[in-house]
Each structure stands twice: as structure tokens, then as C-alpha cells.
Amino acid sequence: MFILDTVFYAGVNDRKVDLFEGQYPVPNGISYNSYIIKGEKIAVMDSVDQNFGEEWLKNIGNVLGGKAPDYIVVLHMEPDHSANINAFLEKYPTATVVSSSKAFAMMENFFGKGIAKNRIEVKDGEKLDLGGRSLTFVAAPMVHWPEVMVAYDDKDKILFSADAFGKFGDLNSDEPWDDEARRYYIGIVGKYGAQAQALLKKAAALDIAKICPLHGEVLDKDLAHYISLYNTWSSYAVEKEGVVIAYASVYGNTAKAANLLKEKLEAKGVCVALYDLARADRSLVLAETFRYGKLVLASMTYNGDVFPFMRYFIGDLVEHNYQNRTVAFIENGSWAPMAKKKMTDMLAGCKNLTFAENSVKIVSAVNEQNINEIENLAEELGK
Predict the structure, then answer these.
(1) pTM for the model
(2) Residue 297's pLDDT is what?
(3) Does 4 have pLDDT greater than 90?
(4) CATH code, domain with 268
């Protein structure tokens, strides 16, 4: 794939994978991106997943037409981007590996001590001269592994952004970037907002015309939109006003309350997203919860705790540094309702949460008092 006169795509699409990183559904697959930069010297940017090594090497050969690359630049050592380094070096033994010190340590853990005998270790701010153009390396630790760097091509003003600005879906999928990039970011990078913010501050000093991530399409139009979204996500700000209602229900009574609340909120003009945690894609619910400013957690009491799917979901929230939001509760229990207390205690690890004054306490089935409680909660959340 042609990107610019001297920058080419050499990556692959994966439509066989069903769960990315073993947990994120990817119905439209995912891409593993690799790029080739041609200066007086040739640099290949990153590798691809282990199942696509032969296709990747063929792509490189097609672009180079028999020429040997001088460098392979390794920005990120996660196996979906590094698994074929050894195969590359077997085919191109004179190539030099360019990476960070932490990446080389990881490389040796993956491939053994003999890997990358020809190597250049680069630090934050250092350059690699390709002849007529150079790559400047910018450290991006914990976006989302500790060894990560991004690279800036000063000739064509391209930011090779590693996993930053990536998305789910292969390059042939027709889906909104925002939605799948949000789900990717929140799920994979979301815990590391401070580190992503640090990278954005460094990137702000660069004149960027294109962003080439390791997953998803090359971004070359309306970059301000993508950068603004990344700033919102990584600062844990509210992207859109609205309410997510996430519920766990066994016999339908808690679900009934959740649906009644949805109806009353929508009647007030509030944007509402309702999810059954036993059936919904948790990565989507998580992303939507970070998208909106208010969250309602609705669960029955189950074995003196909350229902397992609610417990898993709250664990996701805590793990991903959920913060700066308003949270409300609907609880149910036939003899000893305690789900609200359990859910509140589980959220203790989250920062800057505001708990709604109103809540709903169901004892087995929704009654007239509960309907009034739901109305009061809708009134509070609808402000």
C-alpha cells in the first residue's frame, strides 16, 4: 500500500482472530501495521503477529524489489508487533535493530541472548539518520508497555505512534473510527491516562501531518479531532453528557427497574445507554461508561454480595481508573438487600466519584414506592 512517495505499508489484516488479547471481541478483525521508509537507507517499522510472518516478509519484498533493508525499528515489543523479528533477521542478516534498552531486554527474553547482534539503542530525543530524512524517537512509557517509543519522520511529518491512536477492525472494515478507537483505548490503554497525557504533550511540539499507528488506518485528515478525543479519554473527562445504566438481573425485577429508569430519563431528553451485563460485550459497556458522565449500577444481592457479572464489571472500572463521574445505585434483595453497600465499597479505589443522593431499594419486586424512587433518581440524573 502506497502512503507517500517514500513511505509504504507492509502490514497485514487478521480476520481470523475473535478475541484480541484474549478478551476483546473483534468481529471485524484487526490489522497489524508495519511500514517501510525509504531514504538513502531503508527502515522497516515494527513487525506483525506470529501467524502472519510469511505474508509480512512477502509484503516487504514486494515493496523493496529485492533490496535489503538497513534497519528494523522496534517501537513496541508486544508479540503482535514483534513476533517475527527473528524471522526478519534470518532473511536480512545485515539489518540493524533499532530500539530502546528496555525493548532489547524484552527481545532477549522472547528470542534469547543471541538476538539483534547488530543493534542501535536509542533514547528519548535521539535521532536515526536515514539520509535525506531522520527519525526522532520519543519515549512513551506505559502507552501501554514500559519500553514503548514513538518515532517522528521529519521529512514527511509522520508520527509513527505505536499503539497510540490504534483501533479495532481490519483495514477493510467500514466502521466509525471513534467507536472502535474508544473501545480499544479504554480497554487497553485506559489505565494509563497520565502516561498518555505525557505523550500528547510531547507530540504537541511536533508538526504532524499523518499518524501511522500499529492498529487501524493511517490518520491524515482532521487530526485535531483524533488528538482531541485522545486528550478527553486520557484526562478522564466526559466526552458526552448522558447516562449509562448497567444492570444484572436474574428474574427480571432489577431489569424492570433499570428499564423504567431509562424510560423516565429519555422522557426528560437524556441520552441513555442500557446494558445487561450478563449478555453485553463488557469492553463496549466499559468504553461507553467512560464516554458518558453518569452511571447507574443496578444489581440484586447474590450470596451476600453482588451478582457475579456486576462484580466483574466494577472490577473493570477500578482496573481502568474510572473517575470524575456521577454514580447511582439500584439494589434488589428478597430478605437482606446489601448490593448498594457492596457496590459502593468496591468503587472505593476510584477517584473523584460523586454518588447520587437518590437510590432505589427493591425488595423482590418493583412496587409503587420504587416507582417514586425511580422518578426521584431520574429527576436528579436529568439535571
Answers:
(1) 0.94
(2) 98
(3) no
(4) 3.40.50.360
